[in-house]
């Protein structure tokens, strides 16, 4: 279970982005979270990925409550949740080739094998792997970002507007890559976005952002 | 923005000047067997001529040779001091920016405390603690010059730390150390390197200032500051060359380094580079 329970989070203590948001993803389930831009769904995604400490509320991951965030969280916990961001340009270090973040995980021989298996799965050709982010298109870069999120075989995958910057065919390819991975591993998915049609087709169920918030507010 | 040809001319003039000066200080002292300290009172204060292109000083020593030896010492002091200051500044700035919170506040208050004292005064205080020599001068310049580098590096690291690619690395299990070494430091090193190069002439000026005040290197040792200091009395008597040449040797490397650093800055700043090529 990935369980967000009355989470309040934001970047200023006095003015949180949202209060009391709750959302649950069961193992193997795919949940789409729909909401207008600026409502705080990306912040919620960062909380679920252990990247942003909430001001209040709980995150329960596989039965244990998360009490430490970012570097303080044990490595195994952080890597249990993979995350893909909206803008591949800012999500890739401009100094590293596409292959480097993929290799960074694990031992050398094992990493080479993993890269060889992952690159075709997300549709990256070998010549792209040696290039730097400014030498590839947004779509190719987002494929690399997805591959990076999948290298560590996370049990949970969080896609924060993963396809918002991409054209229809790349969107379809990336969604297919995610689904193939989920079929193989049984990973749970939280897909955040504002494209109702896409999320309805992609996910087992979709949740409106306003339904995550307490009704009294 | 200067047009590309002026730009290239400036780059090559600067690089050429620096190459000539560096070759001179590296090759002349081991190859030329004249003693730069040799006193010959019968030849004192000779104006520049073929025998003595820079003239001689008030003790009859050849000024060209002394200028080269002086530049050697001053350049060495400048290089080592700038290097030490940059390493310290980068380490402190990166640590403050990457750790954040309380360590950041403490380190930055330390930087503020150092900055609140005029740095030449603080430098004088440091050299006064030791016997005159090369190392106290290096220490004094290094201790007072890591502050701006620390500030630049910290600001750069702070802006990088919030980027999604750092989030992605954290999510991928990277430790603090790994994020710093792999993502943060490579991004700030060009800036730090530029700061170091710009600091070399600045450090040379500090060495000269300290020596001129009689606090730096021992006065028999040829350094640019000592040469200018020793030439003061002759200048009042109308002998201009003992002051002019060491002074020029202080100014020329400064201009050359500034020219090189300008070209480097253009490379670092892609927007300006693209304007150049279009």
Automatic annotation (TrEMBL), chain A:
<dbReference type="GO" id="GO:0055085">
    <property type="term" value="P:transmembrane transport"/>
</dbReference>
<feature type="domain" description="ABC transporter">
    <location>
        <begin position="2"/>
        <end position="217"/>
    </location>
</feature>
<dbReference type="GO" id="GO:0005524">
    <property type="term" value="F:ATP binding"/>
</dbReference>
<dbReference type="InterPro" id="IPR003593">
    <property type="entry name" value="AAA+_ATPase"/>
</dbReference>
<dbReference type="InterPro" id="IPR003439">
    <property type="entry name" value="ABC_transporter-like_ATP-bd"/>
</dbReference>
<protein>
    <submittedName>
        <fullName>ABC-type dipeptide/oligopeptide/nickel transport system ATPase subunit</fullName>
    </submittedName>
</protein>
<dbReference type="GO" id="GO:0016887">
    <property type="term" value="F:ATP hydrolysis activity"/>
</dbReference>
<keyword id="KW-0547">Nucleotide-binding</keyword>
<dbReference type="Pfam" id="PF00005">
    <property type="entry name" value="ABC_tran"/>
</dbReference>
<keyword id="KW-0067">ATP-binding</keyword>
<keyword id="KW-0813">Transport</keyword>
<dbReference type="InterPro" id="IPR027417">
    <property type="entry name" value="P-loop_NTPase"/>
</dbReference>
<dbReference type="InterPro" id="IPR050319">
    <property type="entry name" value="ABC_transp_ATP-bind"/>
</dbReference>
Automatic annotation (TrEMBL), chain B:
<dbReference type="GO" id="GO:0055085">
    <property type="term" value="P:transmembrane transport"/>
</dbReference>
<dbReference type="InterPro" id="IPR035906">
    <property type="entry name" value="MetI-like_sf"/>
</dbReference>
<dbReference type="InterPro" id="IPR050366">
    <property type="entry name" value="BP-dependent_transpt_permease"/>
</dbReference>
<feature type="domain" description="ABC transmembrane type-1">
    <location>
        <begin position="71"/>
        <end position="261"/>
    </location>
</feature>
<feature type="transmembrane region" description="Helical">
    <location>
        <begin position="184"/>
        <end position="205"/>
    </location>
</feature>
<dbReference type="InterPro" id="IPR000515">
    <property type="entry name" value="MetI-like"/>
</dbReference>
<keyword id="KW-0472">Membrane</keyword>
<feature type="transmembrane region" description="Helical">
    <location>
        <begin position="244"/>
        <end position="264"/>
    </location>
</feature>
<keyword id="KW-1133">Transmembrane helix</keyword>
<feature type="transmembrane region" description="Helical">
    <location>
        <begin position="106"/>
        <end position="128"/>
    </location>
</feature>
<keyword id="KW-0813">Transport</keyword>
<dbReference type="Pfam" id="PF00528">
    <property type="entry name" value="BPD_transp_1"/>
</dbReference>
<feature type="transmembrane region" description="Helical">
    <location>
        <begin position="73"/>
        <end position="99"/>
    </location>
</feature>
<keyword id="KW-0812">Transmembrane</keyword>
<keyword id="KW-1003">Cell membrane</keyword>
<dbReference type="GO" id="GO:0005886">
    <property type="term" value="C:plasma membrane"/>
</dbReference>
<comment type="similarity">
    <text>Belongs to the binding-protein-dependent transport system permease family.</text>
</comment>
<feature type="transmembrane region" description="Helical">
    <location>
        <begin position="12"/>
        <end position="32"/>
    </location>
</feature>
<protein>
    <submittedName>
        <fullName>Peptide/nickel transport system permease protein</fullName>
    </submittedName>
</protein>
């Amino acid at each position: 279970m990935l369980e967000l329970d009355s989470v309040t989070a934001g970047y200023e203590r006095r003015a949180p982005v949202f209060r009391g948001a709750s959302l649950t993803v069961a193992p193997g389930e795919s949940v789409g979270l729909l909401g207008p831009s600026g409502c705080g769904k990306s912040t919620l995604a960062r909380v679920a990925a252990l990247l942003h400490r909430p001001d209040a509320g709980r995150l329960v991951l596989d039965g244990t409550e998360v009490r430490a965030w970012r570097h303080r969280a044990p490595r195994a916990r952080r890597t249990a949740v993979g995350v893909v961001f909206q803008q591949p340009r800012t999500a890739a270090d401009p100094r590293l080739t596409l292959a480097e973040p993929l290799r960074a995980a694990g031992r050398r021989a094992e990493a080479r094998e993993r890269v060889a298996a992952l690159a075709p799965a997300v549709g990256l050709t070998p010549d792209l792997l040696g290039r730097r982010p400014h030498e590839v298109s947004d779509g190719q870069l987002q494929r690399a970002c997805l591959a990076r999120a999948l290298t560590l075989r996370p049990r949970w995958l969080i896609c924060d507007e993963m396809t918002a910057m991409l054209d229809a065919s790349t969107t379809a390819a990336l969604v297919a890559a995610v689904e193939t991975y989920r079929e193989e591993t049984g990973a749970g998915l939280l897909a955040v976005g504002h494209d109702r049609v896409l999320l309805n087709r992609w996910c087992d169920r979709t949740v409106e952002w306003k339904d995550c918030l307490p009704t009294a507010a | 923005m200067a047009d590309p040809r002026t730009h290239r001319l400036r780059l090559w003039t600067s690089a050429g000047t620096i190459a000539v000066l560096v070759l001179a200080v590296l090759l002349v002292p081991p190859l030329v067997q004249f003693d730069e300290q040799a006193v010959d009172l019968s030849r004192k204060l000779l104006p520049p001529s073929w025998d003595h292109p820079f003239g001689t000083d008030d003790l009859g020593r050849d000024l060209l040779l002394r200028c080269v030896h002086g530049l050697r010492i001053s350049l060495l002091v400048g290089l080592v001091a700038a290097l030490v200051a940059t390493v310290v500044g980068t380490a402190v700035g990166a640590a403050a920016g990457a750790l954040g919170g309380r360590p950041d506040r403490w380190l930055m208050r330390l930087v503020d405390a150092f900055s609140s004292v005029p740095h030449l005064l603080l430098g004088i205080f440091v050299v006064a603690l030791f016997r005159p020599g090369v190392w106290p001068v290096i220490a004094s310049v290094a201790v007072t010059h890591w502050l701006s580098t620390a500030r630049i590096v910290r600001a750069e690291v702070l802006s990088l730390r919030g980027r999604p690619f750092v989030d992605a690395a954290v999510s991928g299990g990277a430790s603090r150390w790994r994020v710093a070494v792999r993502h943060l430091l490579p991004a700030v090193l060009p800036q730090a390197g530029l700061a170091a190069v710009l600091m070399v002439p600045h450090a040379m000026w500090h060495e000269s200032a300290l020596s001129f005040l009689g606090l730096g290197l021992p006065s028999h040792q040829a350094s640019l500051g000592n040469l200018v200091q020793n030439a003061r009395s002759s200048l009042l008597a109308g002998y201009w060359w003992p002051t002019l040449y060491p002074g020029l040797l202080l100014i020329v490397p400064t201009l050359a380094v500034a020219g090189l650093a300008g070209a480097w800055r253009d490379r670092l700043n892609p927007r300006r580079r693209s304007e150049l090529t279009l």
